[in-house]
Amino acid sequence: MKFSVIVALLASASAAYAHTVVRAVFINGVDQGNGENTYIRSPPNNNPVKDLASDAVACNVNNRAVPKTLEVSGGDVIIFEYTHERRGGQVISPTHKGAVQLYVAPTSSNGQGAVWVKLHQEAYTNGQWATEKLIQNGGRVSITVPNLKAGEYLFRPEVIALHESDTAYNVNPARGVQLYMECIQFKVVSSGSVSLPAGIDFKKSYTYADKGLVFNLYGSDAGSYVPPGGPVSPIAASNPDIGPVPSAGRRVGKQRIANVGGQPEYNHNGATVAQFGQCGGRSYSGPTRCASGSVCKFSNEWYSSCV
């Protein structure tokens, strides 16, 4: 094999090793299990979106409804977990420095149009990039659900990697900012009063003229960096963060199978799990609310139980 081919293959492998995707969600500290292609609209791989003119900027390249929807209430804490290849493994390469943001939109929009409302942004603070903080905390970023009106919503966490963003993708497709995002399906079941205000359209807001998307990471003052998408909305709760999963509480999220492709809706009608019974884990689709006196505790990717 020619040396040049070997170098190219090694470079490709190194780049792939650095990538990341959202693979799971915690609600009030309770692991909802691996959500890939179940409640997360997962792409086929962990490659970044770089073409800002693409529809994929909204929900990545595989934006289609998936079978499950997670139920939450206003005030619940959602944690989104990024990992490179598998849960518990590497988060993202330390070279991929940049910002972390989170948006919400009505599910009915399918992510298209001026519908995305920013709930969180973190870039460079106290000498540290948000991605560095993300790595330190196991790939987990949290958001408190605003007091939204009942309905179905897409939540969209986003990592903006700036290590190659000195040159725009439309100038040199080998370079460009790297966006890592997925859309996760939620249903707000509480009777909140907050309607989503007008949001941004990624195809119009995320452009090659935006200095938050074309930025020289190595030749610019990190403190001058401003993420794209405008300011955080006033509807956002005051305590989003990148950090560890809190202890599981009693406000436990529930999964509901969405009516996709004629599948029946799934509803536990308030069913609870007895002490020591299973309340979560990958492929689990039963009740997730523990009976009074117990809380749902994470054991591993496949199993959580009421203790």
TrEMBL record:
<keyword id="KW-0136">Cellulose degradation</keyword>
<dbReference type="GO" id="GO:0008810">
    <property type="term" value="F:cellulase activity"/>
</dbReference>
<dbReference type="GO" id="GO:0030245">
    <property type="term" value="P:cellulose catabolic process"/>
</dbReference>
<feature type="signal peptide">
    <location>
        <begin position="1"/>
        <end position="18"/>
    </location>
</feature>
<keyword id="KW-1015">Disulfide bond</keyword>
<dbReference type="GO" id="GO:0005576">
    <property type="term" value="C:extracellular region"/>
</dbReference>
<dbReference type="InterPro" id="IPR005103">
    <property type="entry name" value="AA9_LPMO"/>
</dbReference>
<dbReference type="GO" id="GO:0004497">
    <property type="term" value="F:monooxygenase activity"/>
</dbReference>
<dbReference type="GO" id="GO:0046872">
    <property type="term" value="F:metal ion binding"/>
</dbReference>
<dbReference type="InterPro" id="IPR049892">
    <property type="entry name" value="AA9"/>
</dbReference>
<keyword id="KW-0479">Metal-binding</keyword>
<keyword id="KW-0732">Signal</keyword>
<dbReference type="GO" id="GO:0030248">
    <property type="term" value="F:cellulose binding"/>
</dbReference>
<keyword id="KW-0119">Carbohydrate metabolism</keyword>
<dbReference type="Pfam" id="PF03443">
    <property type="entry name" value="AA9"/>
</dbReference>
<keyword id="KW-0624">Polysaccharide degradation</keyword>
<keyword id="KW-0964">Secreted</keyword>
<keyword id="KW-0560">Oxidoreductase</keyword>
<dbReference type="Pfam" id="PF00734">
    <property type="entry name" value="CBM_1"/>
</dbReference>
<comment type="function">
    <text>Lytic polysaccharide monooxygenase (LMPO) that depolymerizes crystalline and amorphous polysaccharides via the oxidation of scissile alpha- or beta-(1-4)-glycosidic bonds, yielding C1 and/or C4 oxidation products. Catalysis by LPMOs requires the reduction of the active-site copper from Cu(II) to Cu(I) by a reducing agent and H(2)O(2) or O(2) as a cosubstrate.</text>
</comment>
<feature type="domain" description="CBM1">
    <location>
        <begin position="271"/>
        <end position="307"/>
    </location>
</feature>
<keyword id="KW-0503">Monooxygenase</keyword>
<dbReference type="InterPro" id="IPR000254">
    <property type="entry name" value="CBD"/>
</dbReference>
<comment type="similarity">
    <text>Belongs to the polysaccharide monooxygenase AA9 family.</text>
</comment>
<protein>
    <recommendedName>
        <fullName>AA9 family lytic polysaccharide monooxygenase</fullName>
        <ecNumber>1.14.99.56</ecNumber>
    </recommendedName>
</protein>
<keyword id="KW-0186">Copper</keyword>
<dbReference type="InterPro" id="IPR035971">
    <property type="entry name" value="CBD_sf"/>
</dbReference>
